């Protein structure tokens, strides 16, 4: 017998500020570094070393911020001092101490993830390890120690290099997001900007954690072979030390209405790629299920309109995709469509074929009741599949709790999907798919006529 859990903190990239982008992703890493008891050989000896490391980095930044008025020799000296302090601070560390202890007690699927809306932590354990789970999770959420902070910051920077800077599609998508959003922090991206990833401090990380990792900003779902009363006792015993501070205020910045098409052309010898996005409502909007259905019907698989037309019939593309909320959906989001042109195809011509196909749907060939019923069948099957697995059900319930403030919303959203009509989907499509609401990003061959 096992149980799965998922904890979500209502703090993702959208809660960051310029100067600290990527810090929410760093907090995901820091939660695996343990506490004063876990992850260290001797915390009494480690604590002053951590303080020395932080002071050394602050000293580096003080000199660096002098810019042209700074002393390069002094900056080099302070950098060496910081590197020495960082190495000393790692001396008492038990590498991967938290994760090792968790897995030694039978955990599987130990992981975490940060999105634009939240950070999630999850794994599954044998049911007889419930109290152990409470102690470990309550401890790391209430009393984390941000050891190896600057080492992990370098790891996050390397993740950025691998995911964004070293991949043409990654570079394209980053430029697309920064073009699609002119005000809302969804445009920052989850991984952060290079300048921030090389400058923000552990002090700033701890401040972000204290602000967002509070009980009123978290949701926890536990699914499996556990009894409610026993779970409540464990929670009361081990989770009561979480901060009782108020949840941080919601973001006040809203993306202004887009009224003109925006375009990005990335010249690169890589595989051509087309991204088209339209602003659409947040997942809490009553119309959101219609956009989810729209994504499935136009490019959700071999059954979809774009796959049949662009991939099978015209052979213009080798792959298509579509749907809302990929970039986060707590706030008004984007409905995205992706087209991967076939070899030899002009990506800008493929873009125009995409528009022709979408216009044809809106003007001449609306979705049918039969197509929508197929979507509903697939949705019901997905719902059953989620409910059959502890881990996926925990994820679904806690996601609904974070987004709607009520875990029952998971079931209500499924009911809303089943009540959709073809007119609902067509109305949603026509509302957003206008040129002035469109942002486009395309990889084109370098020095080509299309560029």
3D structure, described in words:
This protein is 49% helix and 15% strand. By secondary structure, it is an alpha+beta fold. Strands 5-9-6-8-7 form a 5-stranded mixed sheet, sandwiched between helices. Strands 2-3-1-4 form a 4-stranded antiparallel sheet, sandwiched between helices. Helix 1 (23-30) packs across helix 6 (149-165), helix 12 packs across helix 13 (347-363) and helix 14 crosses helix 15. The N and C termini lie far apart (59 Å). The model has no long low-confidence stretch (mean pLDDT 95).
Nutshell version of this structure?
This protein is an alpha+beta fold.
Q: Which H/E pattern describes the elements?
A: EHHHHEEHHHHHEHEEHHEEHHHHHE
Number of helices: 17
Main structural class? alpha+beta
- Strand line-up across the major sheet: 5-9-6-8-7
Largest sheet: 5 strands, mixed
* Beta-strand residue percentage: 15-25%
Shape: globular
Question: Averaged pLDDT, please?
Answer: 95
Whole-Å distance between the termini? 59 Å
**Number of strand segments:** 9
Please outline the helices and strands.
Blueprint: E1 2-9, H1 23-30, H2 43-64, H3 72-89, H4 97-104, E2 108-114, E3 119-126, H5 130-142, H6 149-165, H7 168-180, H8 194-197, H9 202-212, E4 218-224, H10 228-238, E5 262-267, E6 273-280, H11 288-299, H12 305-313, E7 317-324, E8 333-341, H13 347-363, H14 369-388, H15 390-404, H16 409-418, H17 422-432, E9 438-444
Parallel strand pairs: 5-9
Antiparallel strand pairs: 1-3, 1-4, 2-3, 6-8, 6-9, 7-8
Please tag this protein with its features.
451 residues; four-stranded antiparallel β-sheet; 17 helices; alpha+beta; globular; five-stranded mixed β-sheet
């Amino acid at each position: 017998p096992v149980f799965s859990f998922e904890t979500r903190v209502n703090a993702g990239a959208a809660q960051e500020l310029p100067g600290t982008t990527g810090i929410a992703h760093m907090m995901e890493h820091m939660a695996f570094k343990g506490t004063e008891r876990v992850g260290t050989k001797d915390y009494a000896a480690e604590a002053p070393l951590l303080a020395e490391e932080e002071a050394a980095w602050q000293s580096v930044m003080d000199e660096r911020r002098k810019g042209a008025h700074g002393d390069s020799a002094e900056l080099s000296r302070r950098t060496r001092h910081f590197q020495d302090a960082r190495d000393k601070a790692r001396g008492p560390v038990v590498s991967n101490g938290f994760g090792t202890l968790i897995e030694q007690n039978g955990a599987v699927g130990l992981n975490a993830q940060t999105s634009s809306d939240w950070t999630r932590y999850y794994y599954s354990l044998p049911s007889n390890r419930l109290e152990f789970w409470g102690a470990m999770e309550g401890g790391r959420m209430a009393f984390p120690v941000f050891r190896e902070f600057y080492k992990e910051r370098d790891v996050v920077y390397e993740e950025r290099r691998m995911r964004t800077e070293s991949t043409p599609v990654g570079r394209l998508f980053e430029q697309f997001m920064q073009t699609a959003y002119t005000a809302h922090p969804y445009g920052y991206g989850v991984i952060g900007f290079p300048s921030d990833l090389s400058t923000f401090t552990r002090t700033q990380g701890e401040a972000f954690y204290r602000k967002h990792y509070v009980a009123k900003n978290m949701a926890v779902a536990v699914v499996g072979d556990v009894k409610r009363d026993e779970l409540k006792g464990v929670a009361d015993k081990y989770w009561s030390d979480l901060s009782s501070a108020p949840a941080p205020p919601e973001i006040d910045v809203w993306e202004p209405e887009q009224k003109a098409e925006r375009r990005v052309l990335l010249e690169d010898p890589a595989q051509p790629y087309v991204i088209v996005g339209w602003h659409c409502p947040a997942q809490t909007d009553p119309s959101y299920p219609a956009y989810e259905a729209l994504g499935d019907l136009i490019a959700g698989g071999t059954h979809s309109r774009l796959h049949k037309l662009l991939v099978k019939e015209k052979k213009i593309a080798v792959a298509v995709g579509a749907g809302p909320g990929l970039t986060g959906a707590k706030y008004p989001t984007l409905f995205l469509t992706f087209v991967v042109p076939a070899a030899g195809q002009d990506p800008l011509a493929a873009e125009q074929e995409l528009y022709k196909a979408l216009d044809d749907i809106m003007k001449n060939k609306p979705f049918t009741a039969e197509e929508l019923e197929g979507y509903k069948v697939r949705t019901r099957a997905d719902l059953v599949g989620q409910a059959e697995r502890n881990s996926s059900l925990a994820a679904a319930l806690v996601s609904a709790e974070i987004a709607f403030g009520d875990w029952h919303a998971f079931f209500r959203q499924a009911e809303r999907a089943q009540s959709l009509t073809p007119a609902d989907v067509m109305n949603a499509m026509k509302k957003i798919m206008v040129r002035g609401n469109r942002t486009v990003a395309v990889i084109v061959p370098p020095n080509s006529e299309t560029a």
